[in-house]
Amino acid sequence: MLFYPKLIEPNGQFINEYTHSTSKIVCVGRNYSAHAKELNNPVPKEPLLFIKSTNCLVDLDKPIQIPKQQGDCHHELEISILIAKKLTKVSREEAIDAIDGIGLALDLTLREIQSKLKSKGQPWEKAKSFDGACPVSGFVNIDHFADLSNIEFAMKKNGQIAQKGNTKDMLFDIAQLIQEISNQFTLYPGDIVLTGTPDGVAKLDEQDNLEFTLATNKIVQTVVQ
Ligand code: ZN
After folding, report:
1. 214 contacts 7 by C-beta, under 8 angstroms
2. Which of 42, 49, 135, 178 is most exposed, with minimal Cβ within 10 Å?
3. Which DSSP category does 64 fall into?
4. C-alpha–C-alpha distance, residues 12 and 85, integer Å
5. Tell me, what's the pLDDT at 20?
């Protein structure tokens, strides 16, 4: 099934669907040093890239279905980027010029399965690319962001701040990430880039209420099922 990203106003109000569907979601691991430390991972010298397939995509304003009997399912709150152009081996300027919008996403992760796969040096797809593993918000047009290197974002769980971050704390900034990705994987209009999680990852439980804030605006809320 094709997934068309949604475009929203800064306050979360739906505008319309994007003209292109998503062909892939490219993600980065360990892009905030405090998160690398909380999972006892080394801080990387170059971006650690991986891909979630389109079967992962669901709208963040719908209830989140987490897998049952597969161990803890962690939330990783991340800034997401909607790509507007075909990008292959681009410059920093071309990378910035290709951003259509900014949103939030959850890089849902079956942490116990991931730990087992990591310990055996095996690929992460079972832990990271299962059905529904990437709930995404709508995207706010980039013109609403004065400085890509200073965007705050947060998620409340049952009324308490569970994760918060600011793009200024990224090890590799947004332009650099898109540039690095385009050296390896051509990006197409409609593709989504997830930029890594700040610290505070933790398990989701059924009935958790989640509320998402992007640049001080509450844009969406949902519940875990
Ligand atoms: Zn992540």
Report:
1. no
2. 42
3. B
4. 24
5. 98
Helices (H), the chain: 33-38, 92-97, 111-119, 125-128, 174-184
Domains and CATH numbers, the chain: 6-223 (3.90.850.10)
Ligand 1: centre distance to CA 176 (Å): 17
**How much distance in Å is there from the Cα of 76 to the middle of ligand 1?**
5
d(CA 46, CA 44): 5
Whether the predicted model's global pTM rises above the 0.70 cut: yes
Average pLDDT estimate for 172-185: 97
The pLDDT of residue 45 is 87
Between CA 222 and CA 62 the distance in angstroms is 6
The alpha carbon of 53 and the centre of ligand 1 are apart by a number of angstroms equal to 14
DSSP 3-state assignment of 107?
coil
CA–centroid distance, 81 to ligand 1, in Å, is: 14
Inform me whether the pLDDT recorded for 68 exceeds 90.
Answer: yes
What is the structure's pLDDT at 73?
Answer: 98
